[in-house]
Design goal:
Length: 254
Amino acid sequence: MLSNKDIVREIIKSKNLAIYPLNTEYINGSSINLTASDLAWYSAEKSTGTGSQGEPIIIDIPGKYAVKQGKIHIPKGETVSILTQEAIWVSRKISGTYHSRVSFSAKGLSNISTTLDPKWCGLSLISITNNSKYDQSINVGDGIVTLTFDYLNRKASKDHVEIAASRQDIYNRFDMTGIDSTRLQYLQGNEHRTPFRIKKNMRDSDIYKQLRQATPLKRFYSNILLNPIVLLLIGAVLTKVGESIYKWISGLFS
């Protein structure tokens, strides 16, 4: 299992792991919390109807949009599927597992237990059922699930079956009525569904640049090697060394 130091190192290297948007405050000792976006839907419903021959049939009704005024409303007994704000990419060297947050389970919200497969790319779709006796809500931006990472002893095979990025195969079944056009465009775009875009967005972010500057080597370079006094001392030493070399070479030809 990756510790917080492992997670930060892998993020900085961005060869096996990328997360965007990145918030280092959500990195725990051996995990990272993912937050709820404003893209959430209730589970699909079923209704009865009549077929072309007059026979009774079951009709699937797409899940309705579940967000109102910055909150995801979950009536008692209802299930809601929430896309995380964070898009994740992992290489063939890393897998992971999703876990419930204790604060949610204590309120009667269902436990979460699923896997992050190697080569995963995209947003995470988290389904939560309200098993309590009263209606509940989750604020957009709240941490809703904890994700841990593991190194694999051997890389996963290149040709293993991949699940659709961001679980587009599932969220395309939901009712998109009520979603802002800008958010709908994002949902249907590639910003969260390709490793290149996730890594580029992460590496272009201010938080990523600050994280790189905070590494021991960068701190040594910035605080010591670029210190004006140190630079003056290095310059003086190099000058002295240069003079000595010049005198030695001149002596050879005198």
